[in-house]
Q: What sequence folds into this?
């Protein structure tokens, strides 16, 4: 039986980077990954394929808006087979780099699935046993099927299916209003499908502010999406002609019918097959592994990172968590836990929605005083000439010195613009510090200076 200092279950973003760091620190390391394809969710079925398709749909959308820019573009249509061919070529390139890194020899790669025999022993799907002094669980997440009557029995698409479409659907009903639901709803609509989105919460993108989610919601509706938020989904029914969803909205029972159903009601931790009880690893009722600030589970030699433990299902934070777990297991001194006050989040709808740091809802709940100021995209020169009028920039700062606490941007390229705050926030900079920097005109980025100036003016006032 082979024995390791540090063994990782799952070779996605958290697991791969944890193994890379552990091996670099001199630990005898292995990754156990039995997936059909190597690369992890982000590369194969998440971030990279979805953003590839979303950008192609944005180019199509701009071509179809040619008249607004004074252009004569007779017609523009999606060619799904060519779009899929381009996506597959790019993803294959990304995946090949990760596969090469996994097979580089810096650590052992064991192509099998694993479950716990005891707190230090894993039983592999090929019958072998392996032991480890420290173990990291990074098994990611899977699509969840909430208890909506008829949903479990229905034939529905997951995000995997939507990302692999090689035809334009006539119509689709999307259940859910989270990030995946909203991004892929817009994608389906832009390639030419008739889309109805049905969301249970009062707002789409419920983890974001109502103001920001309302901007995205309006953009979707303006593009032709039929959108219902604040609903109670009663049942799903299917026949040979398609899917019917019955729900209550504003006190009225409504029915919508479409050729296809997309279940985007969320994901859940992929932990059930691991037999965590045998290792003494506790989970929440939804299967999410409980961890402390060092990524340790209830069994302190076992760590967890990424989607299976949360608290946020974001790639760059999963990497930070995995690397922290490896360093902690190696006994590195003077470590710091992941700083969630620097949390960065992006939704790749159009307009995009991006946030960083501590936002109003959190500060208000904690009783922390703050100043905030906003400025709209529809009053900014560069965004106006780009026909990018949705949204605003909001800056949140400490009221005495003006130290930046957070920012919220919903608008054109918000996912790029939000990084103007990443370094300053980490360095505890003030609005005055940012205003001393040069901002080129005319750019989208200079819109950030207007709320900065307003906050600076409020602080400087007697």
A:
């Amino acid at each position: 039986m082979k024995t390791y200092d540090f063994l990782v279950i799952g070779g996605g973003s958290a697991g791969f980077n944890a193994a890379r760091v552990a091996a670099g620190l001199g630990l005898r390391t292995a990754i156990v990954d039995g997936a059909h394809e190597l690369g992890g969710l982000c590369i194969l079925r998440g971030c990279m394929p979805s953003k590839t398709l979303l950008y192609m749909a944005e180019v199509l959308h701009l071509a179809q808006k040619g008249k607004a820019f004074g252009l004569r573009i007779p017609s523009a249509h999606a060619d799904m087979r060519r779009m899929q061919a381009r996506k597959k070529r790019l993803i294959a390139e990304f995946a090949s780099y990760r596969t090469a890194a996994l097979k580089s020899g810096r650590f052992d790669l064991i192509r099998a699935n694993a479950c716990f025999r005891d707190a230090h022993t894993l039983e592999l799907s090929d019958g072998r046993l392996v032991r480890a002094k420290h173990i990291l669980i990074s098994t990611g997440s899977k699509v969840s099927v909430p208890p909506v009557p008829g949903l479990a029995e229905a034939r529905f698409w997951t995000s995997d299916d939507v990302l692999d479409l090689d035809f334009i659907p006539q119509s689709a009903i999307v259940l859910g209003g989270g990030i995946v639901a909203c991004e892929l709803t817009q994608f389906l609509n832009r390639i030419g499908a008739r889309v109805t989105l049905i969301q249970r919460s009062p707002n789409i993108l419920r983890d974001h502010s109502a103001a920001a989610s309302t901007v995205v919601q309006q953009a979707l509706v303006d593009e032709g999406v039929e959108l219902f938020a604040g609903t109670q989904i009663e049942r799903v029914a299917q026949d040979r002609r398609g899917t019917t969803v019955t729900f209550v909205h504003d006190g009225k029972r409504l029915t919508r019918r479409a050729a296809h159903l997309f279940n985007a009601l969320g994901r859940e931790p992929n932990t059930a097959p691991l037999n965590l009880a045998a290792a003494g690893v506790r989970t929440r009722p939804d299967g999410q592994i409980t961890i402390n600030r060092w990524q340790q589970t209830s069994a302190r030699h076992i760590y967890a990172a990424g989607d299976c433990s949360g608290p946020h299902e974001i790639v760059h934070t999963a990497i930070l968590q995995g690397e922290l777990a490896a360093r902690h297991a190696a006994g590195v001194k003077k470590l710091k836990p992941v700083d969630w006050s620097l949390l960065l989040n992006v939704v790749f709808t159009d307009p995009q929605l991006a946030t960083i740091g501590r936002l109003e809802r959190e500060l208000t709940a904690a009783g922390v005083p703050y100043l905030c100021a906003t400025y709209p995209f529809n009053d900014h020169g560069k965004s106006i000439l780009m026909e990018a009028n949705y949204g605003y920039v909001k800056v949140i700062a400490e009221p005495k010195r003006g130290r930046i606490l957070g920012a919220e941007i919903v608008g054109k390229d918000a996912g790029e613009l939000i990084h103007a705050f990443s370094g300053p926030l980490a360095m505890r900079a003030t609005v005055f510090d940012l205003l001393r920097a040069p901002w080129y005109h005319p750019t989208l980025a200079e819109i950030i200076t207007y709320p900065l100036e307003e906050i600076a003016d409020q602080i400087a006032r007697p």
Observations:
- The chain has a mean pLDDT of 95.
- The two ends are 73 Å apart (CA to CA).
- The first helix runs from residue 13 to 24.
